[in-house]
Known about the structure:
Elements (H helix, E strand, L loop, with lengths): L3 H4 L4 H5 L7 H16 L3 E4 L6 H12 L3 E5 L2 H19 L5 E3 L9 H8 L7 H10 L14 H5 L20 H10 L3 E5 H13 L9 E6 L5 H9 L1 E4 L1 H9 L6 H17 L4 E2 H20 L4 H17 L6 E6 L4 E6 L4 H9 L2 E8 L9 H7 L7 E4 L6 H4 E5 L4 H10 L3 E5 L3 H14 L4 E3 L15 E4 L1 H4 L9 E6 L10 H12 L4 H18 L10 E5 L3 H4 L3 H5 L7 E2 L2 H16 L1
Parallel strand pairs: 1-10, 1-11, 2-4, 2-5, 3-4, 5-10, 12-17, 12-18, 13-15, 13-16, 14-15, 16-17
Antiparallel strand pairs: 6-9, 7-8, 8-9
Amino acid sequence: MSLDKYFKKGGALESILPRYRQREAQVDAAECIFQSMRDYVPSVIEAPTGSGKTFAYLIPAFEMGKRTIISTKTKQLMSQIAGKDIPIVQQIFGDDMFVAVLKGRRNYFCHLRFFRFVYTNQGRFEKVMKWYETVVDDEVIEIPIGKFSPSEIDNISTDSWQCPASKCDFYDICSFYKAKEWANSADIVITNHYLLMSDFALKCENEHASIFDFADHIIMDEAHSIPDIFPRFAGTDLSLRSFLKIMNENRHLFEPREIEIAAGMLSALLETIQERQYTSEVKGSILPYIEFVNRIIGAQDSDEIKSLHKRLVDKAESVLGDSEGVRFVDQERGDIILQYIPLNASDKLREGLKNACLSPIFVSATLSGKGNFDYFLAETGYDPEDVMKLSLDPVFDLPNQGRLLVTENTDSFYEELGKKAKGSVLIICNSIGRMNKITKLLKNLCPGRVYSQRDIDISDTEGLTDTIFVGCAVFREGMDFAHTGISYVVLDKLPFEYPDDLVLKEQAESVRRRGQEPFMDYFLPRAVIYYRQALGRLLRHEDDKGVWVVLDNRIDTKNYGKYFKGVLQEVPRINSLDEAVSFLEVSDAENEG
């Protein structure tokens, strides 16, 4: 069957969307996804920016009419799919298919914690109490984004280790479990990668354990991030503050001196551990704290505390164990976090997928690293022969819409950029330190025009034109700056990761042990994917014009530079910022004419 009737000129989408334009890439992606779903074959689809990939997978999903889970990376993208894109598709197919959204537990109101910590201290939580009065009758209560402080949210939400599940007195009216029930009775479920990967990790250990019921199809949008997200769930993390939290939230059961000692020991660890280290290097300092709190908490008779404590003990055994992987400790927002990440989680991911659906579909604008899908497929546990693969050509007319400037990385270039660049500029750095330095430099030159990712949320950028944005991975991946009139995307450096990071260092050694070369087979394909993500922030519509600036001559001087060059190989090169300004001025004049 052909899906052309939905996408062609005069078709269903054009009748609903006034600005809709038929794109061959969108049709090709939709046909590939439909075939993958029909034949129950895993597929990997690389659909470049502007190809309309959301409708390319929603149309086949509704056409097939089978239970489908759609996962993406962020809450913002979930909201866009559920609130904007699906209603459009429902105008075509009707609303016979039940659509539900499921987020992580922390997004839902917890009655147990509310009545234990907020209701009994109403004077401290007046804002929460007033809000609760407006939502108390809702069947599913979600915690609004940005309304409450982290402390307030902590007292009205829970996570998996705190939640007593079916043993909770409020289980029958629990917002998360009610939302989960709706999701598992839905035809189409919208969720995020973090919750889905958590489900896969559960399923690879026990096929009967689950968050989501079995689905015919799972579509993973922004799938490039899955190889980095899943290992975190295949491993374990332990918050040392969690032990102290049990004691503080049940103070009537503990001696004040016990809580004081535990708090003092944790404070000492926070002074000792200032940066990421191998757990083995600080294990001797951590164990006395763990042994002390385990002894104190373990002496309690409360069933609830015993249950919480057992989960923490299980986590501790995993993060301090000896199974293959990297174990490190980090300081995070006044807490010490111990993490265990397996080095090769691809087999577990594949097992989790087999227990979750019949056909997984991976979709992203950036899945290929060196002109093929080898890196992504290896990280997700698939043999290239077992997967349908489609890589679509760019949608935009890159030679006419863009120019590429490769030059040296100097302060003087940024000074010139601040003075000459018209329209908005997006600068993407490889580190927070570098971001801070460039932000400071440009704020001195262009006061009131410069924002770093620490200064502003992307949702607050509406109407900010002629602005300079400076950020790191947060701005590189998935953020849409189209409404700000981006004219320049500047890469401060080719986006190689730092090989001295503990996790990356261990990953590199694991690659070497498999007989591969860490740089060529791991770091390079990842850098090319990040590079393509960054470049994708510039052109978002057919009439956009812009300039890519790469402040790294290695693209021309190193042999591996050819993989980066290939991304914009048809784009004309320019040699100066003056040429960039002229190109954009001519483009503006043509548009005005």
